[in-house]
Write a structure and sequence with these properties.
This protein is an alpha/beta fold. It has 22 helices and 15 strands. A hairpin with a 2-residue loop joins strand 9 and strand 10 (396-402).
Amino acid sequence: MMAGKKRIGIGVENYKVLMDKNYYYVDKTLLVKEFLEKGAMVNLFIRPRRFGKTLALSMLRTFFEADTDAKGNLTDNSHYFAGKQIMEAGDEYIRHMGRYPVISLSLKSAKQPEYRMAYSCLVDEICREYERHRYVVAEDALIDIHKEKYMQIMNRRAEPEEYATALKFLSECLRQYHGKNTVILIDEYDVPLENAWFEGFYDQMIKFIRSVFESALKTNDCLEFAIVTGCLRISRESIFTGLNNLKVVSVLNDNFAEYFGFVQEEVKALLQYYGAAGKMEEAKQWYDGYLFGTAEVYNPWSILNYVDDAISQSVFFPKPYWSNTSSNSIVRELVEKADGEAKQEIETLIEGGTIEKPVHEDVTYGDIHKSQDNLWNFLFFTGYLKAIGQRLDGEDIYLTMKIPNKEVRYIYRSTIREWFEQKLRVADFTSFYRAVVTGDSYTFEETVKYYLRGSISYMDSAERFYHGFLLGLLSALQDYEMVSNRESGDGRPDIMLKPYDENEPVVIIEIKRTTKFNLMETECESALAQIEEKNYTAEPLDEGYTRILKYGICFCKKSCKVKCREIGM
Protein backbone atom coordinates (compact mmCIF):
# COMPACT_ATOMS: atom_id res chain seq x y z
CA MET A 1 0.00 0.00 0.00
CA MET A 2 1.26 3.48 -0.85
CA ALA A 3 2.49 5.40 2.17
CA GLY A 4 -0.05 7.79 3.66
CA LYS A 5 -2.93 6.43 1.60
CA LYS A 6 -6.11 4.92 2.94
CA ARG A 7 -6.40 1.16 2.77
CA ILE A 8 -8.64 -0.55 0.25
CA GLY A 9 -11.35 -2.43 2.13
CA ILE A 10 -11.82 -5.48 -0.06
CA GLY A 11 -14.72 -7.47 1.35
CA VAL A 12 -15.38 -4.94 4.13
CA GLU A 13 -19.16 -4.47 4.07
CA ASN A 14 -19.64 -2.76 7.43
CA TYR A 15 -19.88 1.02 7.08
CA LYS A 16 -18.67 1.73 10.62
CA VAL A 17 -15.61 -0.48 10.14
CA LEU A 18 -14.75 1.37 6.92
CA MET A 19 -14.88 4.67 8.78
CA ASP A 20 -13.20 3.52 12.02
CA LYS A 21 -10.26 1.87 10.25
CA ASN A 22 -9.74 4.59 7.64
CA TYR A 23 -10.57 2.57 4.53
CA TYR A 24 -11.19 4.28 1.21
CA TYR A 25 -14.93 4.92 0.81
CA VAL A 26 -16.65 5.93 -2.39
CA ASP A 27 -19.21 8.32 -0.94
CA LYS A 28 -22.70 6.95 -1.54
CA THR A 29 -24.39 8.74 1.37
CA LEU A 30 -26.68 10.77 -0.90
CA LEU A 31 -28.60 7.52 -1.23
CA VAL A 32 -30.23 8.68 2.03
CA LYS A 33 -31.49 11.87 0.36
CA GLU A 34 -32.82 10.13 -2.74
CA PHE A 35 -34.47 7.44 -0.67
CA LEU A 36 -36.28 9.97 1.55
CA GLU A 37 -37.44 11.77 -1.59
CA LYS A 38 -38.44 8.79 -3.73
CA GLY A 39 -38.63 5.72 -1.52
CA ALA A 40 -41.83 3.82 -0.83
CA MET A 41 -42.84 2.02 2.35
CA VAL A 42 -41.35 -1.27 1.06
CA ASN A 43 -38.50 -1.07 -1.44
CA LEU A 44 -36.87 -3.93 -3.33
CA PHE A 45 -33.47 -3.08 -4.82
CA ILE A 46 -32.34 -5.57 -7.48
CA ARG A 47 -28.64 -5.53 -8.33
CA PRO A 48 -26.03 -8.17 -9.27
CA ARG A 49 -23.95 -9.82 -6.57
CA ARG A 50 -21.01 -7.84 -5.17
CA PHE A 51 -22.35 -4.47 -6.32
CA GLY A 52 -22.38 -2.80 -2.91
CA LYS A 53 -25.84 -3.73 -1.64
CA THR A 54 -24.65 -4.93 1.76
CA LEU A 55 -22.47 -1.86 2.35
CA ALA A 56 -25.32 0.41 1.27
CA LEU A 57 -27.67 -1.17 3.82
CA SER A 58 -24.98 -0.89 6.50
CA MET A 59 -24.60 2.80 5.73
CA LEU A 60 -28.38 3.32 5.84
CA ARG A 61 -28.62 1.47 9.14
CA THR A 62 -25.83 3.64 10.60
CA PHE A 63 -27.66 6.77 9.47
CA PHE A 64 -31.23 5.95 10.45
CA GLU A 65 -30.77 3.82 13.55
CA ALA A 66 -31.45 5.04 17.06
CA ASP A 67 -28.36 3.11 18.07
CA THR A 68 -28.09 1.83 21.63
CA ASP A 69 -25.51 0.17 23.80
CA ALA A 70 -26.13 -3.08 25.70
CA LYS A 71 -27.99 -1.15 28.42
CA GLY A 72 -30.27 0.62 25.99
CA ASN A 73 -28.52 4.00 26.14
CA LEU A 74 -28.62 5.96 22.87
CA THR A 75 -25.31 6.48 21.07
CA ASP A 76 -24.47 9.22 18.59
CA ASN A 77 -23.47 8.05 15.07
CA SER A 78 -23.25 11.49 13.49
CA HIS A 79 -19.43 11.42 13.46
CA TYR A 80 -19.59 8.58 10.92
CA PHE A 81 -20.98 11.08 8.40
CA ALA A 82 -18.64 13.99 9.07
CA GLY A 83 -17.46 15.35 5.72
CA LYS A 84 -19.84 13.15 3.75
CA GLN A 85 -22.13 14.49 1.04
CA ILE A 86 -25.32 13.84 2.98
CA MET A 87 -24.29 16.40 5.60
CA GLU A 88 -24.55 19.11 2.94
CA ALA A 89 -28.02 18.01 1.80
CA GLY A 90 -29.99 20.05 4.33
CA ASP A 91 -31.77 19.74 7.68
CA GLU A 92 -34.85 18.11 6.15
CA TYR A 93 -32.71 14.99 5.62
CA ILE A 94 -30.35 15.28 8.59
CA ARG A 95 -33.29 15.31 11.02
CA HIS A 96 -33.90 11.63 10.19
CA MET A 97 -30.46 10.64 11.50
CA GLY A 98 -30.59 8.39 14.56
CA ARG A 99 -34.35 8.53 14.71
CA TYR A 100 -35.60 4.97 14.18
CA PRO A 101 -35.18 1.52 15.68
CA VAL A 102 -33.75 -0.74 12.97
CA ILE A 103 -34.04 -4.46 12.32
CA SER A 104 -31.22 -5.59 10.04
CA LEU A 105 -30.96 -9.10 8.62
CA SER A 106 -28.76 -10.80 6.05
CA LEU A 107 -30.04 -14.03 4.52
CA LYS A 108 -26.68 -14.99 2.97
CA SER A 109 -26.00 -17.67 5.55
CA ALA A 110 -28.97 -19.77 4.35
CA LYS A 111 -26.96 -21.14 1.43
CA GLN A 112 -27.01 -24.70 2.77
CA PRO A 113 -27.39 -28.18 1.22
CA GLU A 114 -30.67 -29.07 2.95
CA TYR A 115 -33.75 -27.28 4.30
CA ARG A 116 -33.13 -28.09 7.97
CA MET A 117 -29.71 -26.44 7.88
CA ALA A 118 -30.91 -23.43 5.84
CA TYR A 119 -33.89 -22.90 8.16
CA SER A 120 -31.59 -23.15 11.19
CA CYS A 121 -29.29 -20.47 9.74
CA LEU A 122 -32.24 -18.12 9.18
CA VAL A 123 -33.43 -18.69 12.74
CA ASP A 124 -29.91 -17.94 13.99
CA GLU A 125 -29.96 -14.65 12.11
CA ILE A 126 -33.31 -13.70 13.67
CA CYS A 127 -32.07 -14.70 17.14
CA ARG A 128 -28.97 -12.53 16.76
CA GLU A 129 -31.14 -9.54 16.00
CA TYR A 130 -33.25 -10.29 19.08
CA GLU A 131 -30.03 -10.50 21.09
CA ARG A 132 -28.89 -7.14 19.70
CA HIS A 133 -32.10 -5.53 20.94
CA ARG A 134 -32.43 -7.45 24.20
CA TYR A 135 -32.41 -4.15 26.13
CA VAL A 136 -36.15 -3.95 25.41
CA VAL A 137 -36.81 -6.68 28.01
CA ALA A 138 -34.57 -5.07 30.64
CA GLU A 139 -37.09 -2.36 31.50
CA ASP A 140 -40.85 -2.13 31.78
CA ALA A 141 -41.63 -1.33 28.16
CA LEU A 142 -43.03 -4.84 27.58
CA ILE A 143 -45.63 -6.74 29.55
CA ASP A 144 -44.52 -10.03 31.10
CA ILE A 145 -46.12 -12.29 28.49
CA HIS A 146 -44.31 -10.41 25.71
CA LYS A 147 -41.03 -10.55 27.62
CA GLU A 148 -41.44 -14.32 27.93
CA LYS A 149 -42.15 -14.69 24.21
CA TYR A 150 -39.19 -12.46 23.37
CA MET A 151 -36.82 -14.60 25.46
CA GLN A 152 -38.17 -17.84 23.96
CA ILE A 153 -37.52 -16.58 20.43
CA MET A 154 -34.09 -15.20 21.32
CA ASN A 155 -33.05 -18.44 23.01
CA ARG A 156 -34.29 -20.67 20.15
CA ARG A 157 -37.08 -22.21 22.21
CA ALA A 158 -39.94 -20.94 20.07
CA GLU A 159 -42.03 -22.90 17.58
CA PRO A 160 -41.40 -22.60 13.80
CA GLU A 161 -44.57 -20.54 13.29
CA GLU A 162 -43.29 -18.02 15.84
CA TYR A 163 -40.08 -17.54 13.85
CA ALA A 164 -42.18 -17.00 10.73
CA THR A 165 -43.70 -13.92 12.43
CA ALA A 166 -40.69 -13.00 14.56
CA LEU A 167 -39.76 -9.83 12.65
CA LYS A 168 -43.23 -8.41 13.09
CA PHE A 169 -43.17 -9.18 16.82
CA LEU A 170 -39.71 -7.63 17.21
CA SER A 171 -40.86 -4.45 15.48
CA GLU A 172 -43.85 -4.31 17.86
CA CYS A 173 -41.49 -4.63 20.84
CA LEU A 174 -39.21 -1.93 19.47
CA ARG A 175 -42.18 0.33 18.94
CA GLN A 176 -43.20 -0.18 22.55
CA TYR A 177 -39.71 0.71 23.75
CA HIS A 178 -38.76 3.59 21.43
CA GLY A 179 -42.19 5.01 20.70
CA LYS A 180 -41.36 5.05 16.99
CA ASN A 181 -42.02 2.74 14.06
CA THR A 182 -39.29 0.41 12.91
CA VAL A 183 -37.07 0.38 9.83
CA ILE A 184 -36.50 -3.14 8.45
CA LEU A 185 -33.45 -3.88 6.28
CA ILE A 186 -33.16 -7.32 4.65
CA ASP A 187 -30.09 -8.12 2.58
CA GLU A 188 -29.76 -10.81 -0.13
CA TYR A 189 -33.32 -12.03 0.35
CA ASP A 190 -33.13 -14.32 -2.70
CA VAL A 191 -30.01 -16.27 -1.64
CA PRO A 192 -31.99 -18.90 0.31
CA LEU A 193 -34.44 -19.19 -2.59
CA GLU A 194 -31.80 -19.57 -5.28
CA ASN A 195 -29.94 -22.11 -3.16
CA ALA A 196 -33.14 -24.01 -2.34
CA TRP A 197 -34.00 -24.25 -6.03
CA PHE A 198 -30.67 -25.79 -6.94
CA GLU A 199 -30.62 -28.06 -3.85
CA GLY A 200 -34.19 -29.30 -4.30
CA PHE A 201 -36.17 -27.85 -1.37
CA TYR A 202 -37.56 -24.70 -3.00
CA ASP A 203 -41.20 -25.27 -1.97
CA GLN A 204 -40.32 -25.61 1.71
CA MET A 205 -38.10 -22.54 1.73
CA ILE A 206 -40.47 -20.27 -0.14
CA LYS A 207 -43.28 -21.03 2.32
CA PHE A 208 -41.14 -19.90 5.25
CA ILE A 209 -39.74 -16.81 3.49
CA ARG A 210 -43.24 -15.85 2.33
CA SER A 211 -44.55 -16.03 5.90
CA VAL A 212 -41.68 -13.91 7.22
CA PHE A 213 -42.19 -11.27 4.55
CA GLU A 214 -45.98 -11.13 4.73
CA SER A 215 -46.01 -10.62 8.50
CA ALA A 216 -43.12 -8.14 8.59
CA LEU A 217 -43.85 -6.10 5.46
CA LYS A 218 -47.55 -6.47 4.69
CA THR A 219 -49.52 -6.63 7.94
CA ASN A 220 -47.17 -4.68 10.19
CA ASP A 221 -48.56 -1.45 11.65
CA CYS A 222 -45.23 -0.80 13.36
CA LEU A 223 -43.29 -0.52 10.09
CA GLU A 224 -41.87 2.87 9.12
CA PHE A 225 -40.26 1.63 5.91
CA ALA A 226 -38.36 -1.41 4.64
CA ILE A 227 -35.52 -1.93 2.18
CA VAL A 228 -34.94 -5.37 0.74
CA THR A 229 -32.03 -6.19 -1.57
CA GLY A 230 -31.39 -9.10 -3.87
CA CYS A 231 -29.94 -10.24 -7.13
CA LEU A 232 -33.23 -11.37 -8.68
CA ARG A 233 -36.79 -10.26 -8.38
CA ILE A 234 -39.10 -13.05 -7.28
CA SER A 235 -42.65 -12.54 -8.49
CA ARG A 236 -45.25 -11.01 -6.23
CA GLU A 237 -47.35 -14.16 -6.50
CA SER A 238 -44.63 -16.35 -5.03
CA ILE A 239 -43.29 -14.24 -2.16
CA PHE A 240 -44.72 -10.70 -2.14
CA THR A 241 -48.36 -11.80 -2.32
CA GLY A 242 -50.69 -8.83 -1.95
CA LEU A 243 -47.87 -6.47 -0.98
CA ASN A 244 -49.36 -3.38 -2.56
CA ASN A 245 -46.85 -1.02 -0.95
CA LEU A 246 -43.87 -2.63 -2.74
CA LYS A 247 -41.66 -0.56 -5.04
CA VAL A 248 -39.23 -2.54 -7.18
CA VAL A 249 -36.05 -0.80 -8.33
CA SER A 250 -34.37 -3.03 -10.89
CA VAL A 251 -31.48 -2.45 -13.29
CA LEU A 252 -34.02 -1.06 -15.74
CA ASN A 253 -34.89 1.90 -13.49
CA ASP A 254 -33.14 5.28 -13.47
CA ASN A 255 -33.91 5.91 -9.79
CA PHE A 256 -31.02 5.10 -7.41
CA ALA A 257 -28.97 3.95 -10.42
CA GLU A 258 -25.61 5.39 -9.33
CA TYR A 259 -25.68 4.12 -5.74
CA PHE A 260 -24.86 0.48 -6.43
CA GLY A 261 -21.58 0.18 -8.29
CA PHE A 262 -19.10 2.91 -9.23
CA VAL A 263 -19.73 5.52 -11.91
CA GLN A 264 -17.04 6.83 -14.24
CA GLU A 265 -15.96 9.83 -12.16
CA GLU A 266 -15.73 7.73 -9.00
CA VAL A 267 -13.43 5.22 -10.69
CA LYS A 268 -11.34 8.03 -12.14
CA ALA A 269 -10.95 9.62 -8.70
CA LEU A 270 -10.09 6.25 -7.14
CA LEU A 271 -7.35 5.53 -9.68
CA GLN A 272 -5.92 9.04 -9.37
CA TYR A 273 -5.85 8.79 -5.57
CA TYR A 274 -3.67 5.69 -5.77
CA GLY A 275 -1.48 6.96 -8.60
CA ALA A 276 -2.94 4.62 -11.20
CA ALA A 277 -4.66 7.10 -13.51
CA GLY A 278 -2.97 5.47 -16.51
CA LYS A 279 -4.99 2.31 -15.90
CA MET A 280 -8.34 3.97 -16.67
CA GLU A 281 -8.82 2.56 -20.17
CA GLU A 282 -7.87 -0.97 -19.15
CA ALA A 283 -10.21 -0.80 -16.15
CA LYS A 284 -13.00 0.39 -18.42
CA GLN A 285 -12.58 -2.49 -20.88
CA TRP A 286 -12.56 -5.10 -18.15
CA TYR A 287 -14.99 -3.86 -15.48
CA ASP A 288 -17.25 -1.17 -16.98
CA GLY A 289 -20.21 -1.68 -19.24
CA TYR A 290 -23.13 -2.22 -16.87
CA LEU A 291 -26.16 -0.02 -17.43
CA PHE A 292 -28.50 0.64 -14.52
CA GLY A 293 -31.26 2.68 -16.07
CA THR A 294 -29.19 5.06 -18.16
CA ALA A 295 -26.26 5.21 -15.71
CA GLU A 296 -23.01 3.56 -16.80
CA VAL A 297 -21.63 1.57 -13.89
CA TYR A 298 -18.42 -0.31 -13.06
CA ASN A 299 -18.28 -3.50 -11.01
CA PRO A 300 -17.11 -2.19 -7.59
CA TRP A 301 -15.76 -5.52 -6.31
CA SER A 302 -13.57 -5.97 -9.37
CA ILE A 303 -12.40 -2.36 -9.44
CA LEU A 304 -11.25 -2.45 -5.81
CA ASN A 305 -9.37 -5.69 -6.37
CA TYR A 306 -7.89 -4.33 -9.60
CA VAL A 307 -6.63 -1.14 -7.92
CA ASP A 308 -5.25 -3.11 -4.97
CA ASP A 309 -3.26 -5.32 -7.35
CA ALA A 310 -2.18 -2.37 -9.50
CA ILE A 311 -0.57 -0.55 -6.58
CA SER A 312 0.94 -3.60 -4.84
CA GLN A 313 2.49 -5.53 -7.73
CA SER A 314 5.25 -4.40 -10.07
CA VAL A 315 3.94 -6.65 -12.85
CA PHE A 316 0.24 -7.33 -12.97
CA PHE A 317 -2.57 -8.01 -15.42
CA PRO A 318 -6.33 -7.54 -15.08
CA LYS A 319 -8.09 -10.59 -13.70
CA PRO A 320 -11.66 -11.90 -13.62
CA TYR A 321 -12.11 -11.12 -9.92
CA TRP A 322 -15.91 -11.39 -10.09
CA SER A 323 -15.81 -14.95 -11.42
CA ASN A 324 -14.23 -16.11 -8.17
CA THR A 325 -17.03 -14.73 -6.00
CA SER A 326 -20.29 -14.82 -7.93
CA SER A 327 -22.36 -17.91 -8.39
CA ASN A 328 -21.99 -18.89 -12.03
CA SER A 329 -24.67 -21.56 -11.78
CA ILE A 330 -27.03 -19.58 -14.02
CA VAL A 331 -24.41 -19.41 -16.80
CA ARG A 332 -23.73 -23.12 -16.33
CA GLU A 333 -27.46 -23.84 -16.66
CA LEU A 334 -27.59 -21.87 -19.91
CA VAL A 335 -24.60 -23.67 -21.39
CA GLU A 336 -25.65 -27.17 -20.30
CA LYS A 337 -29.29 -26.83 -21.41
CA ALA A 338 -28.68 -24.82 -24.59
CA ASP A 339 -30.35 -26.03 -27.76
CA GLY A 340 -28.96 -25.28 -31.21
CA GLU A 341 -30.43 -21.77 -31.29
CA ALA A 342 -29.15 -20.90 -27.83
CA LYS A 343 -25.67 -22.16 -28.68
CA GLN A 344 -25.59 -19.90 -31.71
CA GLU A 345 -26.75 -16.96 -29.58
CA ILE A 346 -24.04 -17.63 -26.98
CA GLU A 347 -21.44 -17.66 -29.76
CA THR A 348 -22.81 -14.38 -31.10
CA LEU A 349 -22.53 -12.78 -27.66
CA ILE A 350 -18.97 -13.97 -27.05
CA GLU A 351 -17.95 -12.60 -30.45
CA GLY A 352 -19.22 -9.18 -29.31
CA GLY A 353 -22.62 -9.32 -30.97
CA THR A 354 -26.10 -8.75 -29.57
CA ILE A 355 -29.30 -10.73 -29.09
CA GLU A 356 -32.85 -9.52 -28.57
CA LYS A 357 -35.10 -11.09 -25.94
CA PRO A 358 -38.37 -10.24 -24.16
CA VAL A 359 -37.84 -9.16 -20.56
CA HIS A 360 -40.01 -10.47 -17.71
CA GLU A 361 -39.33 -9.17 -14.22
CA ASP A 362 -41.91 -11.40 -12.51
CA VAL A 363 -40.19 -14.76 -12.82
CA THR A 364 -39.50 -17.45 -10.25
CA TYR A 365 -36.80 -20.05 -9.95
CA GLY A 366 -39.51 -22.57 -10.74
CA ASP A 367 -39.91 -20.90 -14.14
CA ILE A 368 -36.26 -21.18 -15.11
CA HIS A 369 -36.71 -24.19 -17.42
CA LYS A 370 -40.12 -23.29 -18.82
CA SER A 371 -38.55 -21.34 -21.65
CA GLN A 372 -35.12 -20.34 -22.86
CA ASP A 373 -36.22 -16.69 -22.59
CA ASN A 374 -36.55 -17.04 -18.82
CA LEU A 375 -32.94 -18.14 -18.58
CA TRP A 376 -31.83 -15.14 -20.62
CA ASN A 377 -33.81 -12.95 -18.19
CA PHE A 378 -31.97 -14.44 -15.24
CA LEU A 379 -28.65 -13.72 -16.95
CA PHE A 380 -29.67 -10.13 -17.56
CA PHE A 381 -30.78 -9.36 -14.02
CA THR A 382 -27.76 -11.07 -12.48
CA GLY A 383 -25.28 -8.95 -14.44
CA TYR A 384 -24.13 -11.42 -17.10
CA LEU A 385 -25.78 -9.36 -19.85
CA LYS A 386 -26.53 -5.68 -20.24
CA ALA A 387 -29.28 -3.91 -22.20
CA ILE A 388 -28.21 -1.48 -24.89
CA GLY A 389 -31.67 -0.85 -26.34
CA GLN A 390 -35.32 -1.70 -25.88
CA ARG A 391 -38.56 -1.64 -27.81
CA LEU A 392 -42.23 -2.30 -27.13
CA ASP A 393 -44.01 -4.98 -29.15
CA GLY A 394 -47.64 -5.21 -28.11
CA GLU A 395 -47.51 -5.72 -24.34
CA ASP A 396 -43.96 -7.12 -24.30
CA ILE A 397 -40.73 -5.19 -23.82
CA TYR A 398 -37.80 -6.53 -25.86
CA LEU A 399 -34.24 -5.81 -24.83
CA THR A 400 -31.21 -5.79 -27.08
CA MET A 401 -28.49 -7.33 -24.93
CA LYS A 402 -24.77 -7.97 -25.03
CA ILE A 403 -21.96 -9.05 -22.72
CA PRO A 404 -20.88 -6.03 -20.63
CA ASN A 405 -17.10 -6.38 -20.56
CA LYS A 406 -14.03 -8.61 -20.82
CA GLU A 407 -14.43 -9.95 -17.30
CA VAL A 408 -17.91 -11.35 -17.91
CA ARG A 409 -16.84 -12.61 -21.32
CA TYR A 410 -14.14 -14.60 -19.55
CA ILE A 411 -16.80 -16.19 -17.31
CA TYR A 412 -18.76 -17.39 -20.35
CA ARG A 413 -15.62 -18.77 -21.98
CA SER A 414 -14.36 -20.55 -18.87
CA THR A 415 -17.82 -22.03 -18.23
CA ILE A 416 -17.94 -23.32 -21.79
CA ARG A 417 -14.48 -24.85 -21.42
CA GLU A 418 -15.48 -26.60 -18.20
CA TRP A 419 -18.70 -27.90 -19.79
CA PHE A 420 -16.83 -29.21 -22.84
CA GLU A 421 -14.13 -30.85 -20.74
CA GLN A 422 -16.80 -32.55 -18.67
CA LYS A 423 -18.42 -33.89 -21.84
CA LEU A 424 -15.10 -35.26 -22.99
CA ARG A 425 -14.45 -37.02 -19.67
CA VAL A 426 -17.52 -39.23 -20.08
CA ALA A 427 -17.16 -39.87 -23.83
CA ASP A 428 -15.71 -43.04 -25.38
CA PHE A 429 -12.90 -42.05 -27.75
CA THR A 430 -11.56 -45.54 -28.41
CA SER A 431 -12.46 -45.59 -32.11
CA PHE A 432 -11.35 -41.96 -32.56
CA TYR A 433 -7.90 -42.55 -31.06
CA ARG A 434 -7.47 -45.71 -33.12
CA ALA A 435 -8.32 -43.69 -36.22
CA VAL A 436 -5.78 -40.97 -35.35
CA VAL A 437 -2.85 -43.40 -34.98
CA THR A 438 -3.77 -45.58 -37.99
CA GLY A 439 -4.33 -42.83 -40.55
CA ASP A 440 -8.13 -43.33 -40.74
CA SER A 441 -8.86 -39.79 -41.86
CA TYR A 442 -12.57 -40.48 -42.44
CA THR A 443 -13.29 -41.52 -38.81
CA PHE A 444 -11.00 -38.73 -37.60
CA GLU A 445 -12.98 -36.18 -39.63
CA GLU A 446 -16.45 -37.47 -38.70
CA THR A 447 -15.66 -37.55 -34.97
CA VAL A 448 -14.31 -34.01 -35.00
CA LYS A 449 -17.39 -32.81 -36.89
CA TYR A 450 -19.71 -34.49 -34.40
CA TYR A 451 -18.19 -32.80 -31.36
CA LEU A 452 -17.62 -29.51 -33.13
CA ARG A 453 -21.30 -29.21 -34.04
CA GLY A 454 -22.30 -29.93 -30.46
CA SER A 455 -19.86 -27.40 -29.02
CA ILE A 456 -20.06 -23.67 -28.32
CA SER A 457 -17.24 -21.74 -29.91
CA TYR A 458 -15.73 -18.37 -29.04
CA MET A 459 -14.04 -16.95 -32.09
CA ASP A 460 -11.95 -14.14 -30.67
CA SER A 461 -9.19 -16.10 -32.39
CA ALA A 462 -10.62 -18.85 -34.59
CA GLU A 463 -7.26 -20.58 -34.96
CA ARG A 464 -6.75 -20.62 -31.20
CA PHE A 465 -10.25 -21.98 -30.61
CA TYR A 466 -9.88 -24.81 -33.14
CA HIS A 467 -6.43 -25.59 -31.80
CA GLY A 468 -7.71 -25.80 -28.23
CA PHE A 469 -10.75 -27.79 -29.34
CA LEU A 470 -8.57 -30.43 -31.00
CA LEU A 471 -6.22 -30.57 -28.01
CA GLY A 472 -9.26 -31.28 -25.85
CA LEU A 473 -10.34 -34.19 -28.03
CA LEU A 474 -6.84 -35.66 -27.96
CA SER A 475 -6.14 -35.03 -24.28
CA ALA A 476 -6.92 -38.56 -23.04
CA LEU A 477 -4.90 -40.39 -25.71
CA GLN A 478 -2.83 -42.99 -23.89
CA ASP A 479 0.80 -43.96 -24.57
CA TYR A 480 1.57 -40.72 -26.39
CA GLU A 481 3.25 -37.48 -25.40
CA MET A 482 1.35 -34.49 -26.80
CA VAL A 483 3.45 -31.46 -27.78
CA SER A 484 1.70 -28.26 -28.83
CA ASN A 485 3.35 -25.39 -30.75
CA ARG A 486 6.88 -26.28 -29.70
CA GLU A 487 9.97 -25.73 -31.84
CA SER A 488 10.61 -28.52 -34.34
CA GLY A 489 12.67 -28.34 -37.55
CA ASP A 490 12.22 -24.95 -39.17
CA GLY A 491 8.94 -24.03 -37.52
CA ARG A 492 6.31 -24.87 -34.97
CA PRO A 493 3.81 -27.67 -35.76
CA ASP A 494 0.40 -27.07 -34.24
CA ILE A 495 0.26 -30.50 -32.57
CA MET A 496 2.73 -33.38 -32.42
CA LEU A 497 1.95 -36.75 -30.82
CA LYS A 498 5.04 -38.81 -29.92
CA PRO A 499 4.52 -42.47 -28.97
CA TYR A 500 6.39 -43.97 -26.04
CA ASP A 501 6.72 -47.12 -28.18
CA GLU A 502 9.15 -46.32 -31.00
CA ASN A 503 7.38 -48.84 -33.29
CA GLU A 504 4.18 -46.74 -33.25
CA PRO A 505 3.78 -43.75 -35.61
CA VAL A 506 4.43 -40.14 -34.70
CA VAL A 507 1.42 -37.92 -35.51
CA ILE A 508 1.98 -34.37 -36.80
CA ILE A 509 -1.10 -32.13 -37.19
CA GLU A 510 -1.17 -28.76 -38.93
CA ILE A 511 -4.39 -26.72 -38.63
CA LYS A 512 -5.87 -24.22 -41.08
CA ARG A 513 -9.18 -22.42 -41.15
CA THR A 514 -11.22 -20.76 -43.87
CA THR A 515 -14.51 -18.93 -44.14
CA LYS A 516 -15.49 -20.75 -47.36
CA PHE A 517 -16.40 -24.42 -47.50
CA ASN A 518 -15.15 -24.86 -51.09
CA LEU A 519 -11.62 -23.92 -49.99
CA MET A 520 -11.31 -26.56 -47.25
CA GLU A 521 -9.63 -29.20 -49.38
CA THR A 522 -7.12 -26.69 -50.78
CA GLU A 523 -6.27 -25.54 -47.25
CA CYS A 524 -5.73 -29.15 -46.15
CA GLU A 525 -3.18 -29.55 -48.95
CA SER A 526 -1.61 -26.26 -47.86
CA ALA A 527 -1.27 -27.60 -44.31
CA LEU A 528 0.39 -30.79 -45.54
CA ALA A 529 2.72 -28.75 -47.72
CA GLN A 530 3.66 -26.62 -44.72
CA ILE A 531 4.68 -29.73 -42.76
CA GLU A 532 7.11 -30.53 -45.59
CA GLU A 533 8.34 -26.99 -46.22
CA LYS A 534 8.97 -26.27 -42.53
CA ASN A 535 10.59 -29.69 -42.04
CA TYR A 536 8.41 -30.57 -39.04
CA THR A 537 9.46 -34.22 -39.38
CA ALA A 538 13.11 -33.45 -38.61
CA GLU A 539 12.93 -33.86 -34.85
CA PRO A 540 11.14 -37.25 -34.71
CA LEU A 541 13.31 -38.63 -37.50
CA ASP A 542 16.44 -37.51 -35.64
CA GLU A 543 15.12 -39.27 -32.54
CA GLY A 544 14.88 -42.54 -34.49
CA TYR A 545 11.17 -42.80 -35.17
CA THR A 546 10.55 -44.54 -38.52
CA ARG A 547 6.81 -43.93 -39.08
CA ILE A 548 5.14 -40.52 -39.22
CA LEU A 549 1.49 -39.67 -39.95
CA LYS A 550 1.05 -36.14 -41.32
CA TYR A 551 -2.42 -34.56 -41.01
CA GLY A 552 -3.62 -31.44 -42.73
CA ILE A 553 -6.87 -30.26 -41.13
CA CYS A 554 -8.99 -27.33 -42.24
CA PHE A 555 -11.87 -25.94 -40.16
CA CYS A 556 -14.74 -23.88 -41.53
CA LYS A 557 -17.37 -22.78 -39.01
CA LYS A 558 -18.77 -26.04 -37.54
CA SER A 559 -17.22 -28.34 -40.15
CA CYS A 560 -13.79 -29.68 -40.96
CA LYS A 561 -11.82 -31.61 -43.59
CA VAL A 562 -9.01 -34.05 -42.70
CA LYS A 563 -6.29 -35.32 -45.03
CA CYS A 564 -3.51 -37.73 -44.07
CA ARG A 565 -0.19 -38.85 -45.54
CA GLU A 566 2.27 -41.33 -44.11
CA ILE A 567 6.04 -41.63 -44.37
CA GLY A 568 7.97 -44.72 -43.33
CA MET A 569 7.10 -48.38 -43.28
